[in-house]
Write a structure and sequence with these properties.
Strand content: 5-15%
Structural class: alpha+beta
Distance between the termini: 100 Å
Number of strands: 26
Largest sheet: 16 strands, antiparallel
Shape: globular
Helix content: 40-55%
Radius of gyration: 37 Å
Number of helices: 46
Length: about 1450
């Protein structure tokens, strides 16, 4: 018998065993001598056990009918029957013969007697057979009138048949030098228990049904006779913490028939109704009546279906293993497979027949939806639409819409203006859309209110939204540095102090106080931190034994929780709750024991009573209680009175002791707990000077940190088995753990739920709170069910938690939004959690500098800042020589730049006089090139003396000129070498530029002034004129107004153009601002097309691409990176970042790529695109703030970070973010209002089901991951990132920014671009990010780190391009005819990478590979007998510049 003090029901199973037998032998194993001094004695203990061959068994096991055996969990009652049971257990180990594994089938009458021979470890093999079993189940089902399920309905399930199987478990030592067979990671060196592995391979079970039926009211499902289900373990090897993979083979056979659904009239029983009164339908199509597949189970309970590797030939077709995987664990192919199933009319008609027997109204809705889906598919097939991207042209969308509405093109003229309005960013024309639907949908009048709400909801989704603009916060230091929080952290070690203590006197053990301090803070540390702590101090003697056990246990838990954090929720993690309960119970019990000890010590209570449950000995035995429950069939517990208050104490039994969470919720028997400081104040500080004990942050005693609890709690809330007892117990254990800790711990847990990316998301927390407040507690007795509102209010004093029933129709706040009220609570929780966020930064992040530290500046800037002459004449100390050396190097570099510029101007004049000559033919150009190369070398020499010298204005300006010059040279080379389709793209840019100039001719404002090109007003006027053009209205028959018919193909034949003509045309076509064009045209660096010397670079690129990416499988810039690898030997490593994921998740993936790059032993740089820029900067910050090992990866000399490239950076956010956030808030409240309107037409059960579905959706793993990604675009998330970030000051950042114009806008970005323009009031953007935000430093968060990055931001000229410039194949599915004509996606890909790499190689940030490095004085690059200009001669004489 078994029962639980807080759960409903219980189990009592009586079995009779007619005979028991046992026999076997024991003998000593060879070399079984235990050496107590052996270091690995715990790991090798198995080899010291005796060799054993032991067999035990039982015969004829049965459950007598008079025993009244039962199992009841409060929801389902099961009455079991069993006859003819047999079981044999064999224990084997220590034999030298080869193993002979048995393959006994589970349904055989005689159990196989094969002897298994096992040499290593111990194997236990259990064979079992039951000749007959019967299970009679009754389950309470909630009322659901719409499905004709009435109040107090019971579902009766009867199963009978036989079962059997073989369970083999082999416990053996793991091999420390290699991975296990399952591919699991190497054993955890910090936990001796994980030195062993368990092998379940070969286990199997089989079930054969003689009868199977389920009856609910007037419906019944009957399973075919002789149905068989088999399960075999193909491979399963896990360690002692269940790390590893399991592969099962599942097969089923319904004996060529299908289960059937029977229905009769309401009030009749299907079992007793006549055949004429029954309606029935088969549930399965023929293909699903028999099958076999492989099911993989991960170490965290994740399920995935794979192709079965069996002797039977695998089936291919619509219902193969991919179909089941789409249902269980959806992947990239799942959507297409499910769409194929929906379009399979034979299957869908079968489904409609089943739905019709369940509910005729539901069948009509489903039939209407399916027929519309089939009609849409037929239209797509006829129109040749195979991909959703092909819908984008407005004229095609209007054509398809007309065909879908009325079957012809009569509505085309009505649809086109509606679509144009949406594309222009003006939202939906609600009146015209409703009129269009009224004329074409027969059921419109019946559903007019619903259609009106849906149309307005769509209009809100498509309209521009007025969002709060980001603001500049001038003083934004890290939270842990704020004085109001620092007082809380006295006695709590910082990350920096932890690492310092670990490295002090490593030959001696740690001080006991330090050991205890680190152990106490371990749950609040990151996994990387604890791993570093354990690897740095490996000897057990370095630690106090209790502290070492605690740290190792916390490490094991955090490793498991990390796996769960990315893998929870939905059908694909159905068994996860059972895996979680394995370690959660132990962790919470240990934490509760520690907490109880602390409470008793603090309150003066004697430790003479055990913790909850209080009584160990009971007046009545468990079996006696269970028998009484079975006989008298007790009613549900009624400890709660009518008023909802708890009854008096005398009515409570020993089982009714409140758990910690129950005590907080009921506000009874709460023991006051003082905030405790784990460490006493230092002895040299007086008591009056030390912090007040009540103000010190109490870390508590939990072995699980707030982040760990939040992840496990969220996994339970997102589980598809919320009603199961295991899930509910897991959630209760977590709530009890939170309640046993200080209130700050509970606030920290809630904040972690609302911080999917570490920056705080009230929307994510609001969704979790909605699910938490409706926590399923049906498995608990009424007395032990927690009032979640009271519990949260106990943790959050001063906050009133809204109740959903008050906001439903008829409630006291029915006119208000429940979601908005709860959203406000979530915001308040995150505000209250700032102390915890500061603590987290204090413990986990190393701060190398405080906010008041001076900025790291170039030496000459430091000298200027204190008023010291740059020539160093005022220095008389030991620093004079290096200062003079640096000063001399700076003066030489400046002189060489001036001399090169003077010669360059002369060379430019020469080019004008000889337009058909190449720069390689003109001696003046050769001289200028030579001098510029010398200036590059001089600048590199300055950098060797002062690595921050590039921050000086003169250096930064010269660097920027070279970057722009190399940008132009890259495009020029692509045009000349005919790379990709760059010629076509440049011709399209040039045509668009010429047409825009033509449109601007005579374009004057109201004051008679000519509107400047590229101004927002000019953009607006041109956009309006273009939207009125016939091309945009019809899309296909008219000509593109930005395409000049008969215009020359300027770049298509570059051999017909001179070098300088091509350069000038590239500048005019490529760059946006006229001022920058003029500067570039007059810059000799640009005109000379100076290449870098040939050779391979000693450099690796770590790529982090945008918010929508396929990670390491992506193909962004693939061709350009391949060319860079071939030409310069530069390898690129793609980070496996995810689509719309949080900062921290993507940063961890970038860290993995960085670690891979560092193993190559070469310096590396970060290449970020869009949101990848923020992710890359986050990765750099986490490495710099991390453990010494992480810092070494970042700053190792010769193989650390040397430069950054930011492509269309979204690191400062985008106004799309806050606008979408406001839009989502409004859409949710509109949906809430819609459901309130429907309450009058639906039952409470239906409303509850809908709300539960919405809760599950908004609290799902996918939704929270998406919220974490969306948070990175919001000002709050962006501010939190920049506030805590740290970056290296000696790493230059270059940027590539763009501004859209009409001729550079892809058709798929029209709407997005127009929305951003209207929402922001500025057209200076690339459709996603504004040009003033797409820089390499924070714009709105001003602090020390922001200034450091601003000093390192080298900039880059603004180009005429769009945000998707680096993409090609990735967006091929959205290319339209207009895009092809304008070559919108044929951008020069090399310009995103080559100029960045070359400019850093030019100045020495990137070195040449040793075997390819060019000598510093390579005369092959110098011209013979150069002819100097008069200006250059004077410059050389004045500055003593070396000449040839």
């Amino acid at each position: 018998g078994a029962t639980h003090p807080i759960l409903k029901g219980g189990s009592l199973i009586t079995t009779v065993i007619e005979s028991i037998y046992a026999h076997g032998s024991l003998s000593a194993r060879e070399n079984a001598v235990m050496d107590l001094t052996e270091r690995r004695r715990k790991r090798n203990i198995l080899r010291h056990l005796p060799a054993v061959e032991f067999t035990a068994g039982v015969q004829n096991v049965f459950i007598p009918e008079e025993s009244m055996s039962y199992s009841d969990d409060g929801q389902t009652k099961c009455i079991p029957e069993l006859k003819g049971g047999r079981m044999k257990v064999r224990v084997l180990g220590g034999f030298d013969k080869d193993p002979a594994r048995t393959n006994s089938r589970s349904d055989d009458v005689d159990i196989a007697d094969d002897i298994l021979c096992v040499q290593d470890g111990i194997m236990v093999v259990t064979d079992f057979v039951a000749e007959s079993f019967v299970l009679n189940n009754e389950t309470h089902v909630n009322e659901f009138p719409e499905l004709e399920i009435l109040e107090r309905s019971l579902m009766s399930v009867i199963l009978s048949g036989n079962f059997g199987g073989c369970i083999a478990t082999h416990l053996r030592p793991q091999k420390l030098e290699s991975e296990t067979t399952s591919g699991a990671k190497a054993p955890n060196l910090y936990n001796p228990l994980e030195a062993y592995e368990i092998d379940f391979t070969g286990s199997n079970a089989s079930l054969k049904l003689k009868e199977g039926s389920a009856t609910l009211g007037h419906r019944r499902v009957i399973c075919p006779t002789e149905t068989r289900v088999d399960l075999a373990i193909v491979e399963s090897i896990v360690d002692m913490s269940f790390e590893g993979q399991t592969e099962c083979e599942v097969s089923w056979d319904f004996n060529a028939t299908s289960p059937i659904l029977q229905t009769v009239d309401v009030g009749l029983s299907p079992r007793h109704a006549s055949h004429e009164n029954r309606k029935q339908v088969e549930l399965l199509i023929h293909e699903l009546r028999q099958g076999r597949l492989n099911l993989n189970v991960s170490s965290v309970g994740g399920l995935s279906v794979k192709k079965a590797a069996t002797t039977r030939e695998d089936r291919e077709g619509l219902y193969d293993w991919k179909f089941f995987n789409a249902l269980v664990a959806p992947d990239d192919e799942s959507v297409s497979r499910l769409i194929q199933v929906v379009h399979d009319k034979r299957t869908m008609k079968k489904l409609l027949a089943v739905i019709e027997l369940l509910n005729s109204d539901l069948e009509r809705v489903a039939r209407y939806a399916l027929t519309r889906a089939w009609k849409a598919k037929d239209i797509f097939d006829k129109e040749g639409i195979s991909d959703p991207g092909k819908l984008i042209p407005g004229h095609r969308m209007a054509r398809l819409g007309s065909l879908f509405l009325c079957g012809d093109l009569s509505q085309l003229d009505d649809l086109m203006p509606i679509i144009q309005r949406v594309v222009a960013g003006n939202g939906l024309d609600v009146v015209k859309v409703k009129d269009l639907l009224r004329r074409n949908i027969p059921l419109y009048d019946d559903w007019a209110p619903e259609i009106d709400r849906i149309v307005r909801w769509i209009d809100t989704a498509l309209s521009p939204m007025d969002a709060p603009r980001p603001y500049i916060e001038n003083h934004c230091p890290p939270l842990s540095e704020l004085p109001k929080y620092q007082a809380y952290f006295e006695g709590i070690p910082s990350a920096k102090s932890i690492y310092e203590k670990l490295h002090e006197k490593q030959q001696l053990p740690l001080d006991p106080a330090v050991s205890a301090m680190i152990a106490q803070a371990a749950p609040y540390m990151s996994l990387n931190q604890i791993e570093f702590v354990l690897t740095t101090r490996k000897r057990p003697s370095d630690w106090q034994p209790f502290d070492l056990r605690r740290i190792r246990y916390v490490y094991t838990i955090k490793k498991k929780v990390k796996d769960i954090s990315e893998s929870y929720g939905g059908l694909s993690f159905l068994p996860q709750s059972f895996f979680v309960s394995i370690f959660l119970g132990e962790a919470t019990r240990a934490s509760l024991r520690a907490s109880n000890r602390s409470l008793k010590m603090g309150s003066g209570l004697k430790e003479d009573r055990a913790p909850w449950p209080a009584e160990q000995e009971r007046q009545t035995s468990t079996l006696g209680k269970l028998r009484r429950r079975r006989v008298y069939a007790p009613q549900p517990s009624s400890y709660l009175q009518e008023s909802g208050q708890y009854g008096s104490a005398e009515h409570l039994s020993n089982d009714d002791m409140l758990s910690p969470a129950g005590r907080v919720a009921s506000q009874n028997n709460i023991t006051p707990r003082k905030a405790r400081s784990f460490r006493q104040a230092p002895t040299d500080v007086s008591e009056s000077d030390s912090a007040d004990v009540d103000t010190i942050y109490d870390l508590g005693d939990s072995l699980l940190g707030p982040q760990d609890v939040a992840i496990l709690l969220q996994a339970g809330l997102a589980s598809s088995m919320k009603g199961s007892t295991v899930v509910q117990l897991n959630q209760r254990m977590l709530l009890d753990l939170m309640a046993s800790q200080p209130k700050s711990f509970a606030i920290a847990v809630l904040a972690e739920i609302g911080m999917p990316g570490g920056e705080g998301s009230p929307r994510g927390l609001c969704s979790a709170l909605m699910a938490l407040l409706e926590l399923d507690q049906s498995s608990f007795t009424k007395f032990h069910r927690i009032d979640m509102h009271a519990l949260l209010e106990g943790w959050l004093p001063g906050l009133k938690i809204p109740k959903r029933e008050d906001y439903l129709a008829g409630g006291r706040w029915a006119r208000q939004s429940y979601y908005e009220s709860l959203y406000g609570v979530a915001q308040s929780i995150l505000e209250d959690a700032e102390t915890y966020m500061a603590l987290k930064g204090h413990i986990q992040r190393v701060r190398h500098h405080v906010e008041t530290d001076p900025l790291p500046l170039a030496k000459e800037l430091e000298a200027d800042s204190v008023g010291i002459s740059i020539d160093g004449s005022h220095h008389q100390d030991l620093t004079e020589r290096p200062e003079n050396k640096l000063t001399h190097a700076i003066e030489v570099a400046k002189g060489k730049i001036a001399a090169a510029d003077a010669q360059g101007k002369y060379a430019v004049v020469d080019m004008g006089m000889s337009p058909h000559s190449s720069v390689d033919d003109l001696e003046s150009c050769k001289i200028a090139t030579s001098l510029y190369r010398e200036s590059f070398e001089a600048c590199a020499a300055v950098l060797k003396l002062a690595k921050l010298a590039f921050q000086a204005d003169w250096f930064k300006a010269f660097y920027r000129r070279n970057y722009d010059a190399l940008m132009i040279k890259s495009v020029y080379d692509n045009v000349v070498d005919d790379v990709d389709n760059v010629r076509e793209w440049m011709d399209a840019l040039r045509r668009g530029d010429l047409m825009l100039k033509k449109l601007f001719e005579g374009n004057e404002d109201e004051h008679g002034q000519l509107t400047p090109p590229n101004s927002p007003l000019a953009f607006t006027r041109v956009a309006e004129s273009l939207l009125r053009s016939p091309f945009h209205q019809s899309g296909s028959s008219e000509k593109d107004p930005l395409r000049i018919e008969g215009g020359e193909a300027f770049f298509s034949n570059p051999e017909d153009r001179t070098e300088q003509e091509l350069i000038a045309a590239i500048i005019d076509s490529l760059f946006f601002y006229q001022e920058e064009r003029d500067v570039l045209k007059n810059d000799p660096l640009v005109r000379l097309l100076i290449p870098n010397p040939p050779g391979k670079y000693d450099f690796t690129i770590v790529c982090a691409f945008g918010v929508i990416t396929e990670g390491e499988k992506g193909s962004e810039l693939a061709a350009a990176l391949k060319r860079l690898k071939k030409e310069r030997g530069v390898s690129a490593i793609r980070s496996d970042t995810g689509t719309a994921r949080s900062f921290e998740y993507n940063a961890s993936k970038i860290e993995d790529a960085i670690e891979e790059a560092s193993k190559m032993g070469r310096p590396w740089g970060l290449l970020g695109y869009s949101q990848g820029c923020a992710n890359a900067l986050m990765a750099e910050s986490l490495l710099l703030s991390g453990s010494p090992y992480q810092q070494k990866i970042l700053m190792s000399k010769g193989k650390g970070l040397v430069c950054r490239q930011m492509l269309f950076s979204a690191a400062n956010g985008s106004l799309h973010g806050p606008a979408s956030d406001v839009k989502v808030q409004r859409l949710i409240t509109m949906a809430e209002s819609f459901f309130k309107y429907q309450q009058g037409y639906c039952s409470r059960a239906f409303i509850s089901s809908v709300l539960e579905t919405l809760n599950s959706t908004m609290d799902s793993a996918g939704f929270h991951k998406f919220i974490g990604g969306a948070q990175t675009f919001l000002p709050d998330g962006n501010r939190a990132f920049w506030r805590e970030a740290q970056h290296l000051p000696d790493v230059p950042s270059t940027v590539l920014r763009g501004v859209l114009e009409n001729h550079t806008t892809p058709e798929s970005l029209d709407m997005l671009s127009n929305l951003l323009t209207k929402q922001s009031g500025s057209a200076l953007h690339d459709s996603q990010v504004h040009v003033y935000d797409a820089v390499g430093h924070p714009v709105y968060t001003i602090n020390r780190n922001g200034r450091v990055l601003e000093k390192s931001d080298m900039g880059g000229s603004v180009q005429r391009t769009h945000h998707w410039s680096p993409l090609d194949e990735e967006v091929a599915f959205v290319k339209t005819k207009r895009d092809i004509e304008r070559a919108a996606f044929e951008c020069a890909k090399d310009r995103h990478v080559f100029p960045w790499v070359d400019v850093n190689a030019r100045f020495g940030f990137i070195q040449y590979a040793p075997k390819d490095r060019v000598l510093e004085k390579d005369d092959s690059w110098l011209p013979i007998n150069p002819k100097l200009s008069p200006e250059l001669k004077n410059e050389n004489e004045a500055n003593d510049v070396r000449t040839t």
